[in-house]
Amino acid sequence: MEQCELCGRREGVREAAVYLDGEKKTVPVCAPCVYEAMRKNRYGLGFGLGLQLCWFVVAGQGLFSVAGAFAAVMAAYGLVRLVLLLAAHLALRAGRSPCPTGSGNTPWPRL
User: Fold this and answer.
1) Which one of 27, 54, 65, 69 is at 20 to 30 Å from 111 when CA atoms are compared?
2) String of b and e for 58-80 (b: at least 16 CB within 10 Å)?
3) What pTM does this model have?
């Protein structure tokens, strides 16, 4: 595989889809760059916490109304996302990778 497009130092082990000039292209990326991108991602936390505000709609409208049922589904989706994000961060902190490398059981290099 080719060199990593982000750092240019290592061989890319995964492919990432990016949009450049309106065209979708796949570029190789190395495992440490994927690790850093996952570690610095704070958007998922805010999104999951924001969806927890839907529980107020459920409390106000009731679970069996149309708005209440829709809000309950969205809040439950946000709760699942928060649990998965927490599990991924705990796996990163413990030194294990939450994403497989695609090359068998070989672990990613630690930074």
Assistant:
1) 27
2) beebeeeeeebeebbebbeebee
3) 0.56
